[in-house]
Design goal:
The chain has 17 helices and no strands. Helix content is about 80%, strand content about 0%. It has helices spanning about 5-20, 25-35, 45-60, 65-100, 100-120, 125-140, 140-155, 160-185, 190-195, 205-225, 245-290, 295-320, 325-345, 355-385, 405-435, 435-455, 455-465.
Length: about 475
């Protein structure tokens, strides 16, 4: 691992650690605000919960715990709102990094993240908490800029290995962040903070930890991260001359632009389905197994651990031999298999519960393989289309095509995935409540198999462009 790669990986761990700390707290935070604001029927939370209850009532009317379902669904809506903001802002963050530099834009986004944490600490109303989420959604740029930085400093041959660090950081932090967030949720506020005599959020301690991590990340990036835009990799593999055949260059740009379009579509469709599966998985365990938060946390944590092991032990070693397209296709097929397990699972819950739990664990392993492979492989695929090569005499980028600028192209790629993450959970919830888990996961399995078959198109396009 090179020096810049190490810096980016450590900053990602800090950033994603801070990002995952509040994830298990969403339902509890909403419940706390509900108790505080229930007497105000015209407050933002009361009006939002009435809307959520009305929407949920169209699809599903539980016999008991209806308010709990509404709180869980509202937590999903908050996640969808965050993804929607990322969908809107990601292309602009990428374009700005192409113009002003990755480092400069990254540090500016970190200021927004710090502001979001500060607002969270003092958010004693639901409206102020939503403000903190909005600031965070508009500011989060670490993942996409880390992808652009790693693409800047890596050659096409080692691109996938470099970008695997993003997936490994995700897997590690999704294992440790939520449990630590839940632990610190019950800890008292430090004395020096209590001495300020300010009214704080009920989960001010996790918010303070998030703030400390973000400040540490910002200081670390300020001191350690160099600018990488227009940086030539240590071992360049492609040299082009300014007098090279113009027609060939135009054709190559057109082909790469088409590949990026197909990859954005695949990214949107995959995350639209996969994020819905992720979100409804806790519905399934609550509805059919009556699992508590600890059991759900253990399931999600096991998926993260297996994903991290696969990222470091298998994907980084095998992807150069298998290829990004084939690796992503394998991950999508694995997800389809996991969805088949989830489809037949409900039929065994009452008669053979051990088999049902075994099917759930098998599905979790399949989903872990999917988490380890698909997004990182598609991202590497996308970044490879942005390499224009370097002039052999000057060492500078040989040609600049706005549609292939790394920051913009990768920002648009991330944006498409975030749109899928915004829509997927809502559609999956509606289907789960209307048709039940077997139909929902069965249709999703068919969709994933269809998507896997369609991914051969990318391999054909790459073959033409190589």
């Amino acid at each position: 691992m090179g020096n810049v790669e190490r810096i980016v990986f450590l900053s990602l761990v800090l950033d994603l650690f801070a990002f995952t700390i509040p994830l298990p707290l969403f339902p509890r935070i909403i419940e706390w605000y509900t108790v505080r604001e229930i007497s105000d029927p015209n407050g933002l939370l009361s009006r939002t919960l009435r809307f959520v209850s009305a929407v949920r009532g169209i699809f599903y009317k539980p016999l008991q715990n209806s308010q709990r379902w509404d709180v869980v669904f509202l937590g999903g809506l908050m996640g969808s709102a965050f993804s929607t903001l990322q969908f809107l802002v990601s292309p602009h963050i990428g374009s700005l990094s192409d113009t002003y530099g990755r480092r400069n834009v990254l540090l500016i986004t970190m200021i927004g993240n710090i502001l979001s944490a500060l607002v969270w600490i003092q958010s004693t109303t639901f409206a102020s908490y939503m403000l903190s989420r909005i600031i965070g959604g508009l500011s989060e740029g670490n993942v996409q800029l880390a992808t652009a930085i790693l693409s800047d400093i890596s050659t096409p041959r080692n691109r996938s290995k470099a970008l695997a660090h993003v997936g490994i950081a995700f897997a590690i932090c999704f294992c440790i962040g939520p449990p630590i967030g839940a632990y610190f949720a019950s800890r008292p506020v430090p004395l020096f903070v209590g001495a300020l005599q300010m009214e704080l959020n009920v989960y001010a301690v996790p918010a303070l930890l998030t703030l400390v991590l973000l400040i540490a990340e910002t200081l670390f990036l300020t001191v350690a991260l160099p600018e990488t835009r227009n940086t030539q990799p240590d071992k360049p593999e492609v040299h082009v001359n300014e007098k090279s055949n113009a027609a060939s260059a135009v054709r190559s740009v057109q082909e790469r632009t088409e590949i990026l379009r197909v990859l954005r579509k695949l990214h949107f469709l995959f995350l639209g389905i996969f994020s819905g599966v992720e979100f409804t998985l806790t519905f399934l365990t609550f509805d059919l197994f009556d699992w508590n938060n600890k059991q759900n946390g253990a399931l999600i944590g096991s998926i993260g651990i297996i994903s991290a092991l696969l990222q470091g032990g298998y994907v980084r070693r095998a992807i150069s031999k298998v290829g990004e397209g084939k690796m992503a296709q394998r991950g999508v097929s694995s997800c389809a298999l996991g969805l088949v397990f989830l489809t037949i699972l409900p039929h065994f819950v009452s008669t053979r519960p051990k088999i049902a739990v075994g099917l759930l664990r098998a599905a979790a392993i399949c989903l872990a393989f999917t988490s380890a492979t698909v997004v990182s492989s598609l991202t590497a695929h996308a970044s490879l289309q942005c390499d224009e090569g370097f002039d052999k005499d000057t060492g500078k980028p040989a040609a600049v095509y706005p549609e292939l600028a790394k920051g913009k192209a990768l920002g648009e790629f991330r944006s498409s995935g975030q749109l899928g993450r915004a829509i997927g959970p809502l559609l999956a919830c509606a289907s789960y409540w209307t048709f039940g888990p077997s139909v929902t996961y069965g249709v999703s399995a068919i969709a994933m198999l269809t998507l896997s078959a369609s991914m051969k198109t990318v391999a054909v396009l790459l073959g033409k462009s190589s």
